[in-house]
Amino acid sequence: MGSCSSGGKSGATGAVHTDPKMENFISKYRVRIIGDKLGADNYITKHPEDAEYLRSHKQEIIDYIKNKEIAEKKRIEARKAKIQSIKGLKEIEAAESAWYRYNEQSSQFIYKGGYGKAPEKPTVTINEMYKKYPRAAAYREAEKWESSSNYTKSAFGREAKEQIINGKSYKAAIAKMKKDWKEYTEKHMWD
């Protein structure tokens, strides 16, 4: 297979320097860490030079896989931090949750004939929260679109959500999301 020189070392940014040969090797044989050993598909036995490479470069491959895993965890944590830094998102989610509980409890109250104490209405409306925290409201709207069962609408929502997470204009992201969907539905109206 040849030597893979980068070893998957992380730089200052936490990004892994990927080695295409190493990536191909790991993917081709589905190489994975099992305890302190490496596992690979049996298919590797048909290629003795690759089986030998796996044995002779065990630690390098383990380091490469572990460094990729560490970098991926850092990327996920950084993304979570960006989402958590959206001002008002927790408050909007709490308001939505409170209204959901209220509606569920109200339905049960009515179903049971209205006996007992009626549930208390939440003190804040979701629309008030949306006006107070427009970026967070845009994030929630894009997130709802992303949950659509229509894969194209979902893709437009995901794209808008990523733009909002990464600090782009939430107004532009939502406008583009809606524009793209409108154009798509008009183009495919008679499909």
Structural features, described:
- Mean pLDDT is 90; it is low at 2-14.
- This protein has 2 domains: 20-84, no CATH class; 89-187, no CATH class.
- It has helices spanning 20-28, 48-56, 58-84, 89-111, 126-132, 134-146, 151-165, 170-187; strands at residues 32-34, 37-39.
- The longest helix has 27 residues, at 58-84.
- With 191 residues, the chain is mainly alpha-helical.
- Helix 5 crosses helix 6 (134-146), helix 6 (134-146) runs parallel beside helix 8 and helix 7 (151-165) packs antiparallel against helix 8.
- Helices cover 63% and strands 3% of the residues.
- A two-stranded antiparallel sheet has the order 1-2.
The description of the largest β-sheet is:
2 strands, antiparallel
* SSE sequence, one letter per element: HEEHHHHHHH
Number of strands: 2
Structural class: mainly alpha
Structure, briefly:
The chain is mostly helical and 191 residues long.
Features:
63% helix; mainly alpha; 8 helices; disordered N terminus; 2 domains; two-stranded antiparallel ribbon; 191 residues; 2 strands
Secondary structure elements and pairings:
Blueprint: H1 20-28, E1 32-34, E2 37-39, H2 48-56, H3 58-84, H4 89-111, H5 126-132, H6 134-146, H7 151-165, H8 170-187
Antiparallel strand pairs: 1-2
Helix pairs in contact: 5-6, 6-7, 6-8, 7-8
